[in-house]
Specification:
The complex is a heterodimer of chains A (251) and B (195).
Chain A: E1 5-13, E2 16-17, E3 21-23, E4 26-28, H1 32-42, E5 46-51, H2 56-59, H3 61-72, E6 77-80, H4 86-94, E7 99-102, H5 104-108, H6 111-120, E8 125-134, E9 137-142, E10 147-152, H7 153-163, E11 167-172, H8 184-193, E12 198-201, H9 207-215, E13 221-224, H10 226-229, H11 235-244
Parallel strand pairs in A: 1-5, 1-13, 5-6, 6-7, 7-8, 8-11, 11-12, 12-13
Antiparallel strand pairs in A: 1-2, 3-4, 8-9, 9-10
Helix pairs in contact in A: 1-3
Chain B: E1 2-6, H1 14-22, E2 26-30, H2 33-38, E3 41-44, H3 50-59, H4 62-68, E4 73-76, H5 78-82, E5 84-87, E6 92-93, E7 98-104, E8 115-121, E9 136-142, E10 144-145, E11 152-158, E12 160-168, E13 171-174, H6 182-194
């Protein structure tokens, strides 16, 4: 059976990991490739590197990072952050990225998603959607969640699927950072509505939250950052737990 | 060991190239017929669309060359599918090395298509799977598949049982990406270079 995926997300700035990461008292700061290797050895199924570099000069460093990750890791990885054109995506592909994730640029120019899917195939295109509830409606936000748009989550996700998104990475801003669980009800609705995989993001705090994202939220994958980085949950422990809950997991 | 990786702009080949280099191979990304013919082993990668791939292969005369190769050849993902007789993807003729048609997945239980992620392989045959445990997980990304047939060397289940790997004479194919399948995937590449 197809396994549910566990994904770790690493924030990268100027080619370096932003936050420190702890594994059982060992503290690794900096090298995103070394961190990726550790996660890979622990059994993570996929990695997302999110480039939060603000300057164009710094952005170029992402290419050498991508090349190094491709050479040193043998699991799939996605690059997100600042991708706003077919050329940006192609440069990442050439350097070895398996997938790219687009967010604000897709809102600004939805045609970009169609163009990426046509040129590189759907499997290459992850559409990231950040949304929060305003007056009981899920409103899509861009620019790292700072700017509200006129888009509503479900219709936007459907449009992205129609345009060729291969996966939807849905981050609930209501849940993100609270460690109280994923937005399971909305995840389940997305999963029922769409025929592409849904990645749950925002809210992981305990191993039970991952179980619920899969069983209640019907997510195909669950993504987290700080619970892994700060050693709150270890990947092998999480995978054992989920397997014991009869969830199909790669071990 | 000289390995030729067939170059027809098949998307992401960095990882397979790096994995082979780590195993001590001398890799060349090429469409040069003489270099491919003289290589010890040939990798036929593939990401993209079948009909576009066939055009690219024809433009470089590789559609004639590949079936005549006598050294071990490993087709990966679309590379494997292109070695079959015909593909429903874009109504495309394949290279005909394997007497089977490539067909689109049909969801039977609302499965999402493409089949994307880690899935288990079983009924492992051929030395490609030496030291690979039954039910090991491999990384798949595809919407079309090769049904189980006489040359199936490994099976996987999604919508139905299909060929995760095929083998005939010196030709091998993996539907999954060994270069993205962790340590067992790397072991498969190592087994291939030992053939």
């Amino acid at each position: 059976m197809l396994a549910k995926r566990i994904i770790a997300c690493l924030d990268v700035k100027d080619g370096q990991t932003v936050k420190g990461v702890s594994f059982e008292n060992l503290r690794y700061a900096g090298d995103p490739v070394e961190l990726g290797k550790i996660y890979s050895e622990q059994g993570i199924d996929e990695l997302v590197y999110l480039d939060i570099t603000a300057t164009n000069e710094g952005r170029k460093q992402i290419y050498s990072l991508v090349e190094s990750v491709a050479k040193n890791l043998s699991i799939p990885f996605t690059i997100g952050g600042g991708i706003s054109s077919v050329e940006d995506a192609e440069n990442l592909l050439i350097h070895g990225a398996d997938k790219v994730s687009v967010n604000s640029a897709a809102v600004k120019n939805p045609q970009l998603v169609s163009d990426l899917a046509e040129k590189f195939g759907k499997q290459f295109v992850v559409v990231a959607i950040d949304a929060k509830t305003i007056n009981n409606e899920w409103i899509v936000h861009t620019h790292g969640g700072k700017r509200p748009t006129d888009k509503e989550l479900y219709s936007w996700a459907k449009e992205m699927e129609n345009r060729g998104a291969g996966e939807i990475l849905f981050t609930s801003m209501d849940h993100d950072g609270h460690q109280t669980g994923f937005a399971n009800e909305s995840l389940a609705k997305l999963s029922d509505m769409l025929s592409i995989p849904i990645i749950a993001s925002g809210g992981a705090g305990t191993m039970e939250h991952f179980r619920d994202a899969f069983l209640i939220g019907k997510a195909d994958a669950a993504l987290a950052a700080s619970v892994f980085h700060f050693g709150q949950i270890s990947v092998p422990e999480l995978k054992n737990y989920l397997a014991n809950q009869n969830i199909q997991i790669r071990k | 060991m000289k390995i030729a990786i067939i170059d027809y702009k098949a998307g992401n080949i960095k990882s397979v190239e790096a994995a082979l280099q780590r195993l001590g191979c001398d890799t060349t990304l090429t469409k040069d017929i003489e270099i491919i013919k003289s290589a010890d082993k040939v990798i036929f990668p593939g990401v993209g669309h079948a009909s576009a791939t066939l055009s690219a292969l024809k433009a470089a005369n590789l559609d004639k060359l590949i079936p005549e190769l006598t050294q071990p050849v490993l087709g990966i993902c679309l590379g494997m599918q292109m070695m079959c007789k015909y593909s429903e993807e874009g109504n495309t003729q394949g290279l005909g090395i394997f007497d089977v048609n490539v067909v689109k997945f049909q969801a039977v239980n609302n499965e999402k298509i493409p089949h994307m992620g880690w899935n288990q392989i079983s009924s492992l045959k051929t030395p490609l799977f030496n030291d690979i445990p039954e039910k090991s997980y491999m990384y798949f990304v595809h919407s079309y598949m090769v049904p189980v047939f006489k040359d199936t060397a490994a099976e996987c289940g999604y919508c139905q049982q299909f060929s995760a790997s095929i083998a005939r004479n010196n030709f091998y194919g993996c539907q999954f990406h060994p270069e993205k399948s962790g340590k067992f995937g790397l072991k498969i590449l190592e087994n291939f270079i030992k053939l």
